[in-house]
Amino acid sequence: MWPGGLCRLWRLLGYRSRVFGPVASCRPGLCGLASRGEETGSGVRVRFGPSPTGFLHLGGLRTALYNYIFAKKHGGQFILRIEDTDQSRLVPGAAENIEDVLEWAGIPPDESPRQGGSCGPYQQSERLDLYLKAAETLVKRNAAYYCFCTPSRLETTEEEALRMGRTPKYDNRCRHLTSKQIEERLVQGCPYVIRFRLDEGTVSFEDLVYGPNRMDPANVEGDPVIIKTDGFPTYHLANVVDDHHMNISHVLRGTEWLTSTAKHVLMYRAFGWDPPVFAHLPLLLNKDGSKLSKRQSDLFIQNFSQNGYLPEALLDIVTNCGSGFSGNRPGRTLEELVSEFDVTRITTHSALLDIDKLPEFNRIHLFRHIEDSSSRQQLVTELQNLVEKVYKEKLPEGEALCKDYVERVLVHRKGHITSLLDLLKPAYSYLWIRPPVPREQMEDLTTDGEKICSMVISLYQNWPDVNGTPAELNSELRSLQMQFTTTKYSVMMKLLRLALSGQQQGPSVAEMMLSLGPKEVCERLQRVIIH
Ligand code: GLU
Known about the structure:
The chain is mainly alpha-helical. Helix content is 47%, strand content 8%.
């Protein structure tokens, strides 16, 4: 067996024993939880920990989704924790937006700032005491220390390192302060941070996706800050403390955090806590392999929803371009994603997102929604509102927007439209407003125009099953043509299309007629005859 295969096998075995074996023992929580096992049946608790530095993006939704799927797959809990410890980068409204989006996407958290839960608060800025106490514990154990280095000293050492061609890193100078020196500086009110002592040596940990890892973080960086001068924790401390106190069993997060994990493992050790199981998700990239930037503002979830995309289409496209499932195919529902998911199937390959395929994913999910009678009713209301907004005064009184009419339009256009917004485009304006009769164009086609229109009206009067299929309607139209006019069938279709929609192109005439319905078809054709 080749080394990669061995390593994967090892990982699978390692994983099975950890995930399906007995759940790790009791962890004292903020919330006084007895144990992870008692909190949920399976003991699986995962969290999505976004920083509210911007609105939720497709990359963030994907991380949340994998966590949600993992939780549901294992009968566990999905937690939303807002990581707002970097106060300088907060964007007003972002935290609310994140939770709104998760609800809209159909992957609501079980515990969150809005939902509450037994391990709250779920916003890190409301847990500051906990981090301070934790940092003090580390200081007492000599695993952390006060650092009084001024920004200008740090800058100078950094410049010096760069000049010497070395990677700049903190020189750990304050590690060596005596208790007396520390005392004096604290009494003088000198600003300070607390740093974690990164002892040298290799740290090994296992990742469900990346396999065994060995890292020597002290070799790469100086002792990291865990409490900043403003009294807020840094991400590293807050994340370890919260994952422990929230009884998180598995950490599924972006691969950019893999290198920080060794540092986190050292912190767990310093506290004397068991680390959770880690699974780092491979990168989500554009299809050309470039970085999916948070500044690609069109990737914000709210923009997708405003542009008529369904949450299911987004969940489907971000999972289809990646791994973790028994094969990939478009059109999967969330339920199917949960049932087909297996964390051991996640590979380290980056997921390449072809966003141009989103309309096609949306078409498939929209079709499914239209087929389902209860979601169809929601779409009807949505479409009614959209049409009213776009066509406002142009709408005729009465019939055009009644529920049955809108529903019929949806049923006949399903599979052809990629979004409800398609139906607002000029090509479909005929559905909502009667176009003027293009008399000249019709007369250029045939002199039998009025006769053809009367034939079709009488067809409706005599045909009991006007709700037939396009094929049935086509065959009725063809037999009319053969019996009553010398105009060619294709010309007759052009004429009817012009009479009904004022357009030369569009859906098939039969589909157009079925969408409009008998009453509207007859009234439109009648206008041709009267003049
Ligand atoms: N706050 C981090 C982020 O914004 C979360 C990382 C983690 O999940 O540990 O990505």
